[in-house]
Every structure is written in structure tokens, then in C-alpha cells.
UniProtKB/TrEMBL annotation:
This is Sugar phosphate/phosphate translocator like. It is a multi-pass membrane protein. It comes from Actinidia chinensis var. chinensis (Chinese soft-hair kiwi). It holds the Pfam family TPT. Residues 1-12 have a biased composition (Polar residues). It is found in: Membrane.
Length: 353
């Protein structure tokens, strides 16, 4: 940043040798930085409200889009390799993150500073792998609507892991708000026409893994020196996760790459589906960051509460899976419980401060 300089000028004199307070002062402003110029250029094209609306719409498109694409690939199209698909997601996130941070400067780059920090991120990557693989695999057996109903119970598992691992307790109001979360999923499960026990169990595992990752991340990356921005954390977690998944997909799913290449020779559409799916998987992470940046973490939480319901409705309209009144009621009760949980958490934090 170059500080503004003041030059005093007067006809027939040397401004460096003869400054005078009565002379005219010409202020040379500071040269704007690249970030400032970029922000000004974007702001001149889009108003803040339009930009926020566009980012929010992109968030919904990516979050719901990746669910629908995963469901179509794994259940409808017949690409029955969820571990390999998850590995493609991780490779995509690694590549796009590298481009976004190193070349587009979306966020300042951060580096792994110690071996200890490396192994902490590796542990998070393993939990991340488990959660995503289970979530993708469950879509082979469950409709998206039921998948999202189970996923909405994440706060319940977060509260359990926070108590078991960190001995953190919540207020009675917070724990009471979790009752409708659990009750709603019980009702929805009993009323789901396409209920599949294995799909249900691995979807619960995915939800528990997502909650465990958030708790463990809060424990492992606590010091200021080890804290990483979400986009930088993704940059390091994604390739680690891909390396973890590579031997697993080879052992369980066989030589999927050769199968996919052979499939692509006769059906080019599979290439488009896989590239689009992997790209949208990265956009989920990017739009999470952008929504938080341009609004707030609370807004992201509210959008997340609504996303499950929107995704369920859209998936029923597209895939025409059967639903029951009791199933929809149970889903609604779960979502209502999540909203109550969010409000109770907010009040407990306000009271604590």
C-alpha cells in the first residue's frame, strides 16, 4: 500500500526546497490494490443485492444439483461405483482449489507448518472420506428425499459427539429441541415406501461422520497457528482423501477406470455426467464460502435448514419416487426440530456471553 504524498508547488521555485503552507497542495492518492480494483469492477456490474441473490441461487443449484446427479449416476444410470465417484470428487476439489487459491487468489494461501498439523488434517480427511462415501453409497438404495431427512439429524449426532469427546454440555432447551429431530426421522422411516435397511444404516453413518468431523476439527485445529481457512483446508484435505480412497476403490470396486473408459467409448454421455458431477461437487464448497462471505454463517445455517426440504421436493418431482403423508409429516417434524435447535443454540450462546 503506497501512502498518499503531498507536493507543494509554486511557479519559479523548487518544491523540495521551498515548501510554504500558503501554496497550493496537490494530493496524489494511493494506488489502488488489485483486490480493490477487482471489487470495484464487480460492484459496478452487479448491485450487492443482485450479487447476494446470485450467490444464494448458485448455492442451492450446487447443493441440490450434486445430490440429483449422484442419485442419477448411482441409481438410475447404473454407474455403481460410489467410492470411485467420491475419489473423482476429491480430485476435482483438489484441482479447482489449487486454481482458485494459487491463480485466482480467492483467499490468501496458507501452508502446513508442521508434521503434527499434517497428521491432524490427514485424520480429518479419513473422517471426511467415510462420511462422503457413505452418503453417496446410500443414494443407490434410498430416495433423495429420505436421504435428506436422515441428513437433517446432524445436530443430534453433533451434540452426542461433543459430549462424548469434549464433555461439552448444552442447556436443557437445546437438548429438548433435539427430540422432534429424532422423533420425526422415526416417523419418516416407518412410513418410507422405499425403505432399505442397509441404505438407511450407511446414511446414518454418513450423517454421524459429518457431525464427528465438525467436532474433531474444532479440537484438532484450535491454535491460531494451525487454523486454516475452509478453502485452504479443502485444498489439503481433498488430495489426502483421494489417496486414501484409491486403494479402497481398487480393492472393492476393481479396475473402475478401465471400465469407465470402455463405457465412454460407446456412450460419451458418461464423460459429461462425471465431469459435471465432479465440478458441481467443488462448487458446493465454493458457494458455502461465498455465502458466508457475502452474508453470514447464520444465513448459511438457515439455507441449510431449508435445503433439505427443497431437495426433497425437487427430487420427488424429477424421480417420481412414492411418498406418504406420514413420511412427509415426519420429515417436516425433523426440519422443524433442526430450526428449534438452531434457535436454542443461538439463545444459549447469547446467555453465555
Amino acid at each position: 500500500m503506497v501512502e498518499g504524498q503531498s507536493w507543494t508547488t509554486r511557479r519559479g521555485s523548487n518544491p523540495r526546497l521551498d515548501p510554504s503552507p500558503t501554496d497550493q497542495v496537490l494530493d496524489i492518492p494511493a494506488t489502488p490494490t488489485g483486490d480493490f480494483r477487482a471489487t470495484t469492477a464487480i460492484g459496478s456490474l452487479l448491485s450487492p443485492n443482485i450479487l447476494t441473490a446470485a450467490i444464494t441461487a448458485s448455492w442451492y443449484f450446487s447443493n441440490i444439483g450434486v445430490l440429483l446427479l449422484n442419485k442419477y449416476l448411482l441409481s438410475i444410470y447404473g454407474f455403481r461405483y460410489p467410492i470411485f465417484l467420491t475419489m473423482l470428487h476429491m480430485l476435482s476439489c483438489a484441482g479447482y482449489s489449487l486454481a482458485a487459491i494459487r491463480w485466482l487468489a480467492v483467499v490468501p494461501p496458507q501452508h502446513i507448518l508442521s508434521r503434527r498439523q499434517f497428521f491432524k488434517i490427514l485424520a480429518l480427511s479419513a473422517i471426511f472420506c467415510f462420511s462422503v462415501v457413505c452418503g453417496n453409497t446410500s443414494l443407490r438404495y434410498l430416495p433423495v428425499s429420505f436421504n435428506q431427512a436422515i441428513g437433517a439429524t446432524t445436530p443430534f449426532f453433533t451434540a452426542i459427539f461433543a459430549f462424548l469427546i469434549t464433555f461439552k454440555t448444552e442447556t436443557a432447551e437445546v437438548y429438548l429441541s433435539l427430540l422432534p429431530v429424532v422423533f420425526g426421522i422415526v416417523v419418516a422411516s416407518n412410513s418410507e415406501p422405499l425403505f432399505h435397511l442397509f441404505g438407511f444404516l450407511i446414511c446414518v453413518g454418513s450423517t454421524a461422520g459429518r457431525a464427528l468431523k465438525s467436532v474433531v476439527q474444532g479440537i484438532l485445529l484450535t491454535s491460531e497457528a494451525e487454523k486454516l481457512h475452509s478453502m485452504n483446508l479443502l485444498l489439503y484435505m481433498a488430495p489426502m482423501a483421494a489417496m486414501i480412497l484409491l486403494p479402497i476403490t481398487l480393492y472393492i470396486e476393481g479396475n473402475v477406470l478401465a471400465i469407465t473408459i470402455e463405457k465412454a467409448r460407446s456412450d460419451k454421455f458418461i464423460v459429461f455426467l462425471l465431469v459435471a458431477n465432479a465440478t458441481v461437487a467443488y462448487l458446493v464448497n465454493l458457494t458455502n464460502f461465498l455465502v458466508t462471505k457475502h452474508t453470514s454463517a447464520l444465513t448459511l445455517q438457515v439455507l441449510g435448514n431449508a435445503k433439505a426440504a427443497v431437495a426433497a421436493v425437487v427430487s420427488v418431482m424429477i424421480f417420481r419416487n412414492p411418498v406418504t403423508v406420514m413420511g412427509m409429516t415426519g420429515f417436516a417434524v425433523t426440519v422443524m426440530g433442526v430450526v428449534l435447535y438452531s434457535e436454542a443454540k443461538k439463545r444459549s450462546k447469547t446467555t453465555a456471553h
